[in-house]
């Protein structure tokens, strides 16, 4: 069993089930400029990243270079498309995940959510799920709160600072993409968890050498909580 004081969870694909709408929208925004990218390609090169950076990385992976103005323009299109998609979207969590977060908090473990989204989008999702700060989570850290996005550790460092946790060994980072695991390692987290509910497969997640790969966050109970 691991001893931790803070669990940091990615949002989409990890605690928020939004049916990959972000990456489907990213795919649509890029392909409207004449690309023919598959969703798997978009996920492989863009998952977990701040979305403007994701667009640049996806296009570069496809054609070897990227025009900064085109990437910025696609990002603006993406934000409009995502806003439309989200307002129509039914959003929930995965089975048992909310109960796990509540159990962690009952056992004195602080819960942070972090995301490559901007704060407006993140808050829209949480509102749709009826999740509130102080109940399901203690702090939300978004791409807007830091200068450097994943895989840099800045969002985890920010969460630790806000929640007064000083020992990285007592921090767990969980996410559905390789970049989440890299972020956790770069923050020197004592435990890194990959979960197969979102962007990347078990095989892809294992390539980043996390402490564990889980098929459901409900498996955290066995790893963290007294039976």
UniProtKB/TrEMBL annotation:
Pfam families: HAD_2. SUPFAM superfamilies: HAD-like. This is Phosphonatase-like hydrolase. It comes from Maribacter dokdonensis.
